Each structure stands twice: as structure tokens, then as C-alpha cells.
Amino acid sequence: xxxxxxxxxxxxxxxxxxxxxxxxxxxxxxxxxxxxxxxxxxxxxxxxxxxxxxxxxxxxxxxxxxxxxxxxxxxxxxxxxxxxxxxxxxxxxxxxxxxxxxxxxxxxxxxxxxxxxxxxxxxxxxxxxxxxxxxxxxxxxxxxxxxxxxxxxxxxxxxxxxxxxxxxxxxxxxxxxxxxxxxxxxxxxxxxxxxxxxxxxxxxxxxxxxxxxxxxxxxxxxxxxxxxxxxxxxxxxxxxxxxxxxxxxxxxxxxxxxxxxxxxxxxxxxxxxxxxxxxxxxxxxxxxxxxxxxxxxxxxxxxxxxxxxxxxxxxxxxxxxxxxxxxxxxxxxxxxxxxxxxxxxxxxxxxxxxxxxxxxxxxxxxxxxxxxxxxxxxxxxxxxxxxxxxxxxxxx
Length: 396
What we know:
The chain is of the alpha+beta class. It has helices at 9-30, 34-60, 70-82, 117-122, 129-142, 149-156, 161-180, 184-200, 206-211, 219-226, 233-241, 252-258, 272-306, 308-321; strands spanning 62-63, 90-94, 102-107, 110-116, 342-346, 351-356, 359-367, 373-379. The strands form two sheets. The protein has a four-stranded mixed sheet, sandwiched between helices. A hairpin with a 2-residue loop joins β3 and β4 (110-116).
């Protein structure tokens, strides 16, 4: 399986790992161990961010199984077998919202491959187009590209080096995608969809597209590739069609300028910064609402539990006196709980409202056939049903 590894990847991987570990050791020694605190804090941040992503995938995606999208599942299984992956990751299809992409990730030892729905739809007329994307992402997992990143992190920002290592990894994964495809041409067609879009890829003249790779030797083309984490798509397609393709050399002066530009991740320099802002925005759009929902749900669960004594007192007063108390004070309850939640009683109907910083819960009493009181819980105005405790959601 050595032919699946791009020639420079192992060298670049070893160099970045050794230099990264040395930098970390220097930082730990130079800060008298304070860098370890930063590492621990970074790991905690990683847990929250990555758990949000995994929860989003599992909660909103569709897992590939023998019964769920069996055609895609069969391609996934075949690709795992071709790459000799014994322990198969979980594979999902996720709404891409217009994005043609796929990615691999891992969390606490479990591995995942995610296909965006748009790339699946784009490849509907391609016999094994999805296999290329599955193979590419499985390549990241097989080569353990998701491991050791933190150790390399202090060194990956270095000009030229970090970008070169990233491009080498992508070229390796393209070879894995090729291994899962029925032919080099079909693998290259799958890649071309990232250039031409979900429909027009079918009309691409692949020979002409392959020749475009030879236009990349100019100064600016060379510079922007040297600062980017991905090779140009035309180069990737050419190398997939012929792994020994002789690519044109880069402009030597581009190296001089690129050597001054720190590697900003796979997005590279120039307009890459704008794309970086966009990606961060997309991640924030997923992570922030999920975190807000979590905080609100915790508040409402706390409000439900802490207001139970008030409901018990109201029910007891009504059963003993056969009338609704005029106020909370009449049953010995304060209008504000120790956790800051506000209680308000509407004597008309004995409706209890518990107001939190995230909104309100409304408890409406009902007489049970046995003569007791049960409470129906609903959300106040503007409270999302997804943030409510299960007992307070509509239909529960």
C-alpha cells in the first residue's frame, strides 16, 4: 500500500512532528510548565467544539447502513475493504447547503466520514463518483492525519513547511480516492465536479482539463499554491489520471515571497483569509446556537426542579381549602427563588409562571380523577420547543 502515499508526505510529516515536539518542550521548559496549562485548556476547548460537531452530525445526518442508502453503504464497505481498513468508521450523509464537500473527523477514539448531500446528488450520474470522496476521507483516517496535529501545531504556521505538509497529505488522500475508483478517468471526473459544479462536470473535456495544470508555473499561480493547503484542482486531477505526471516547475521568485507569509491553515493567503472568516462563521453558526440551546435547556430543567415546592404548596392549599390562594405569600412561597428565578401566580386558574434569564415556563393545574392536582408545563412566549425539558414540549 506504499503506492498510496505521496512521496514527500512521510518526510514532511516526520520533520513537522520532530520540530513541533521540540518547540513544545522548549515552551514547557521556558514557561516552567505553564504551557501545559495552555495545552490542557486547548484540549477542553477541543472537547466542546468537537463534541458539538459530532452531535450535529449524529443529530442531523443520515447514517449509511445496509438499510439506509444501501447503494452508498455498499460503496463505502467496498472502499474500506480496498484500503484494508478493518475497523470501519461510521459514515453519514449531511445536508451540505450547497457545498460540494466531504470530511473525516474523530472524537474520543471514534472515527467518522461525512458526505455532504450535494456531492452525493452531484455524483448521482457517476457510477462510482462517491467512492473517490469516500476513499479520500478514509485516507485521512488510515494515514492518521487527524492524530498528532496538536504536537505539530507550533510549527505548522511556518511559511512553506506547513502548507507543503498539508498539500502532501491531500495528494496522498487523492491516491486513496483513486484506489477506490474503477478508473483514473472516473476519479478525475469526481474531482472535476469541485471545479465545474454539480451538473457541468459531466461536460468537461478531461484531456483539456488535465492540460490546464501546465498553466500553474506563473509567479502568482505559484505563490498562491505555495501558501495554500491544497494543490490546484487541475494538478490534482492530472496526478490522479497519471500518478507520474510531470508537473511544471514553480516560479523560483514565488518561493521568496511565500517564505514571508506564515501558513494560515489550508486556506492559504490572499483571499484565503476571507474564506477563513466564512468557515469560522459557519462553525460559529453551528456551535453557538447549540451551546445556547444547551445553556437554556439547563436553565429550564433547573427552573422545573426548583419550582416544584411552589407547585406542591399551591396544590396542597387548593385541596385543603377548595379555593385558589390569592398570592404566593399565602402559601409561604417567595416570589424569587435562591437561584434567581422569578415566580408569578395568576390567581385566575392558579397558573404559575417561572421566569428565567432564558425565558419562562408556564405551569397550568388540572384536577385529576383521583382528586389531586397535576401540572401541565409549556414554554413561555418566544421559547423554542427544542430548549424545553421533555415534559414541557408540545405533544409530550
